[in-house]
Design brief:
The structure is a homodimer. By secondary structure, chain A is an alpha/beta fold. Chain A folds into 2 domains: 196 residues, Quinone Oxidoreductase, Chain A, domain 1 (Alpha-Beta Complex), CATH 3.90.180.10; 136 residues, 3-Layer(aba) Sandwich (Rossmann fold). Helix content of chain A is 29%, strand content 25%. Chain A is built from 12 helices and 17 strands. In chain A, the strands form 3 sheets. In chain A, strands 3, 5, 6, 7, 8, 16 and 17 form a 7-stranded mixed beta sheet that branches. Chain A has a 6-stranded parallel beta sheet with strand order 11-10-9-12-13-15, sandwiched between helices. In chain A, strand 16, helix 12 and strand 17 form a beta-alpha-beta unit. In chain A, helix 5 crosses helix 6, helix 5 crosses helix 11 and helix 8 runs parallel beside helix 9. The longest helix of chain A has 13 residues. The first copy, chain A, is globular and about 60 Å long. Chain A starts with a strand and ends with a strand. At the A-B interface, strand 13, strand 14, helix 10 and strand 15 of A face strand 13, strand 14, helix 10 and strand 15 of B.
């Protein structure tokens, strides 16, 4: 089969790869219905995270179980399933309290930008939909594998509560779905920070009540002005740079919450500064598995349509164009359909 | 009057100072029943925090209201009161959600190691006891002004819950009272980290179930061993150094909580490292004012005796010896009684 392999900065190739096989009896093989390019794929694509060797790309996936290992009990061939970018046994102490992305057995599920994918710990990682979904629901289901679950975790980690004021730092797909999550959790005011017009439009569609285009210190000043000098109750950090992290922390009121899900790159926090902000800080790789049953229900019942973040759909073989479009910010998020 | 003034590293003088007076109508003057030396006083005493000019010392206090400004309504002369080390109006948006130490009008109450003290914003800062307390209750009431409130906040910020496993990093007075707080909140297991024998004894008396003497990476390994590789649910950081902070974060299970109250000195947190720990982080200067009514009740009714942290009592004029004894770790905490 052919899949996406990253060789180095801006060098993604669609090339022959070994067809995945069951390695352990707890594995499953999925026939990918749709995959996509993640904002976090851009770190190595841009050369910011080094690429030691040619790396099969893609960690967001949904599709039909093609084959299940002999020990797999909870899913079976023919079912449509969604899983997290980290596998989990869903039984260890960390999984039991809802931190499946810190599962004692977790590993990164890699190589999803391909027609077939091996998923380890299938029982603890995959969740089946009630039935085979209609084709137009697939983009929304795909987001549950990472971006929607990550936006949801950001809002959850930021303690979003009904009626409260929420700020979302970052207008990528995760930030936009953080806006949607905050709305679902009943936020009273949702201020999206971003300067890109098509994204502002989608942010408003998802529930943003205000847009702030300034960033850094100026952005913080705007938030303070808009909140009578108090700051926001909950701030979602969905980028992962020093500027965005400090923007998030400084926009939060004392006693407020920052939920940070942007994978930090070169972020350093000064303990003394943080101390006097009085914020709650929580984040990390989203425990997507925790939220899958609930979010599948919301998509299945037509309550949410997070698939709107895909503004570019390409056949899988054009995966390199998907990376380019996202890198150049021509696309929010690229959906890839194997033929 | 004579009070303590810090001139520079290890140079505390008991010398003539101006007698405090009402400056604003919201001020009160307190006749100090007891004051003490704080662990945080040792930072400038040791020259770690610079001392720009001779500085009146002391920010923990209780005593009788001597005089109240014309606008003061909630306390009156003759009442015994306790206040926080930060003044607060107790009405601003930050105070209203319980973060009085981030009050929009807060200022440090300084110069309490003296017979008289000016407290700004008396209405929002001071809480009166039900009556004049017996003399032997004064040490415990004094701790509510800072160390007990701070230990309590550490446990609260660390989300201590009944039956859970708690680690306390730091065996100073705050750490010891963090142990007491965790016990009151119903913790199932309380592991105190410290290597000083008299402090271990007091930790056990306050409710510690285990003592770990190792620190840094070795300390973390011990905690992991003791928790079947999981880590603690709640960790109280009561020191403020890089080693203690990392020890706290690394001892916490994914999804667990770190409550940090040691004023950070030179602490830098790597965003990427923190991200993958999945911990909740919350702390800062304790909003002592929030807890005063509840904690006064506990002391008044004999439920707790946090004053046991004072293992040295000196007349105020020997304040310099109090600093020396704490600096050399001969004393956990020195109580100072004006004559």
């Amino acid at each position: 089969m052919k899949g996406a392999v990253l060789y180095g900065p801006r060098d993604v190739r669609f090339e022959e790869r070994e067809t995945p096989k069951i390695v352990k009896p707890t594995d499953a093989i999925i026939r990918i219905a749709a995959a996509c390019v993640c904002g976090s794929d851009l770190w190595p694509y841009r050369g910011i995270s080094p690429v030691a060797q040619p790396t099969p790309m893609g960690h967001e996936y949904c599709g039909i179980v093609e084959e299940a290992g002999s020990a797999v009990r909870s899913v079976k061939p023919g079912q449509f399933v969604i899983g997290s970018f980290f596998s989990s046994d869903n039984t260890c102490p960390h999984c039991q309290i809802g931190y499946q992305s810190s599962c004692q057995q977790h590993e990164l599920v890699g190589g999803a930008q391909a027609p077939l994918l091996r998923v380890p710990l299938a029982d603890g990682t995959l969740v089946a939909t009630p039935d085979i979904p209609p084709d137009d629901m697939i983009p929304s289901l795909l987001t549950l594998s990472d971006v929607m679950g990550t936006g949801w975790f950001a809002a959850d980690a930021a303690g979003v509560k009904p009626g409260k004021t929420v700020v979302v730092v970052g207008d990528g797909a995760v930030g936009l779905l953080g806006v949607l999550s905050a709305r679902l959790m009943g936020a009273g005011r949702i201020i999206a920070m971003g300067r890109h017009e098509p994204r502002q439009k989608l942010a408003r569609e998802f529930g943003a009540t205000d847009i702030v285009t300034e960033r850094g210190g100026e952005g913080v000043s705007r938030i303070k002005e808009m909140t009578e000098g108090i700051g926001a109750d909950s701030v979602l950090e969905c980028v992962g740079t020093q500027v965005s992290m400090m923007q998030a922390i400084s926009s939060t009121r004392p006693g407020g919450h920052v939920g940070y899900v942007g994978v930090p790159h070169g972020v350093k926090l000064d303990g003394g500064e943080l101390f006097f902000t009085h914020v709650h800080l929580h984040g990390g790789p989203a425990p997507v598995r925790r939220y899958l049953p609930e979010l599948i229900g919301l998509v299945w019942n037509g309550k949410i349509n997070p698939g709107k973040v895909f503004d570019l759909t390409l056949p899988l073989e054009q995966v390199a164009e998907g990376y380019r479009a996202m890198d150049e910010r021509r696309a929010i998020k690229a959906l890839l359909r194997p033929q």
